[in-house]
């Protein structure tokens, strides 16, 4: 019987684990290998205090090493169901079942799809959702990046750094949502911007060959040849497990938590990007994880009394 079973090994999950094992709890972290933390896609992390010049893979390795050094048990299993029994929970995975007294859901978020014609057909064949992973395949090509947030601008800069020849950001409004520092870097770069523009269709044969874009003000469409399209338009939470257990989520699917990271189901806590917190950053996910872990500790100890 584990004291806390943590689902997800991103910043929130691993922080929760570190806090719990240090308190002497028996902890299991389950991670779905098919859905690694989005942090592992970050080309550069430069807003986590005290650590400069690190990429997402490197910092997540430091987190995991830290948790393992403190004797956290981590298993690669996909959780398929959380079941509530009288006095504990049963977490069913693709391999087995685990009993635990409490659960922390820190399953993060997935890339939002643009839902346009050709997107499903050319996904992985010229359409990418991860500049850091796939960028080198587009070296020397011209590409489009869709979006106006931190992810889109970060991806465009990363692609330029990787030697992608000609990069154009397509944004549906006439101002970016991304932080000022990224906007400044874009201005200094060779990246071009098409304002007030949305993608309508992606065409090709075996691989992407062109994109049809629409200017939302003039309503005019144009087809432009391209070697690839990076879709960077935000995230949707991974909250299917929570929904199955009737855990409350908001209208966008983010898990509703209070200040202590309690969900509406006693003994189940949530932390990080899958929750309805206002800021989605590594540092806030870590904070959530620390709070969720502390709340789960209190819950487990109260139950023991
Ligand atoms: P985001 O901030 O939600 O931005 C999504 C962008 O895509 C917005 O500009 C949005 O346009 C646009 N968009 C959304 N749906 C669209 C659609 N269907 N078609 C066309 N455009 C669409 O998402 P994000 O950039 O992925 O960032 C997510 C979170 O992670 C944010 O909190 C961000 O700060 C954080 N993040 C941080 C870093 C970092 O380095 N610190 C890096 C990446 C992400 P509108 O602007 O018109 O809404």
Cα separation of the termini: 17 Å
Global Rg: 21 Å
User: What's the domain count?
Assistant: 2
Mean pLDDT: 96
Identify the overall geometry: elongated
Number of strands: 17
Assigned CATH class of the largest domain: Alpha Beta
Order of helices and strands: EHEHEEEEEHEHEHEHEEEEEEHEH
What ligand molecules are bound, each kind once? Answer: NADP nicotinamide-adenine-dinucleotide phosphate
CATH superfamily membership of the largest domain, which one? Answer: FAD/NAD(P)-binding domain
Please name the CATH topology of the largest domain.
FAD/NAD(P)-binding domain
Q: How helix-rich are the residues, as a percent range? A: 25-40%
- The share of residues in extended strands comes to 25-35%
> In the CATH classification, which architecture of the largest domain applies?
3-Layer(bba) Sandwich
Poorly predicted regions: none
Helix/strand structural class: alpha/beta
Please outline the major beta sheet.
Answer: 7 strands, mixed
- Distinct helical segment count: 8
Provide the descriptors you would attach to this structure in a database record.
305 residues, alpha/beta, 7-stranded mixed sheet, 5-stranded parallel sheet, 27% helix, 28% strand, binds NADP nicotinamide-adenine-dinucleotide phosphate
């Amino acid at each position: 019987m584990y004291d806390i079973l943590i689902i997800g090994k991103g910043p929130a999950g691993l922080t929760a684990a570190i806090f719990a094992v240090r308190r002497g709890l028996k902890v299991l972290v389950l991670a779905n290998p098919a859905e690694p933390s989005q942090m592992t896609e970050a080309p550069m992390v430069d807003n986590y205090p005290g650590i400069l010049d690190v990429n997402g893979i490197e910092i997540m390795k430091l987190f995991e090493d830290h948790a393992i050094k403190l004797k956290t048990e981590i298993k690669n299993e996909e959780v398929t169901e959380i079941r509530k029994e009288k006095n504990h929970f049963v977490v069913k995975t693709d391999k087995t079942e685990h009993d635990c007294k409490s659960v922390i859901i820190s399953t993060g978020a997935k890339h939002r799809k643009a839902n346009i014609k050709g997107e499903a057909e050319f996904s992985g064949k010229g359409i990418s959702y991860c500049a850091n992973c796939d960028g080198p395949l587009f070296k020397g090509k011209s590409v489009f990046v869709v979006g106006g947030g931190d992810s889109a601008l970060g991806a465009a800069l990363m692609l330029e750094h990787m030697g992608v020849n000609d990069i154009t950001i397509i944004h549906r409004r006439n101002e970016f949502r991304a932080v000022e520092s990224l906007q400044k870097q874009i201005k200094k770069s060779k990246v071009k911007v098409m304002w007030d523009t949305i993608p309508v269709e992606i065409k090709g044969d075996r691989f992407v060959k062109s994109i049809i874009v629409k200017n939302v003000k003039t309503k005019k469409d144009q087809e432009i040849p391209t070697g690839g399209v990076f879709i960077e338009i935000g995230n949707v939470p991974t909250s299917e497990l929570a929904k199955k257990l009737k855990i409350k989520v908001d209208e966008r699917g983010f898990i509703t938590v209070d200040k202590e990271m309690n969900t509406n189901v006693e003994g189940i806590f949530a932390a990080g990007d899958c929750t309805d917190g206002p800021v989605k950053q590594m540092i806030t996910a870590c904070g959530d994880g620390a709070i969720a872990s502390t709340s789960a500790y209190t819950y487990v100890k109260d139950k023991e009394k």
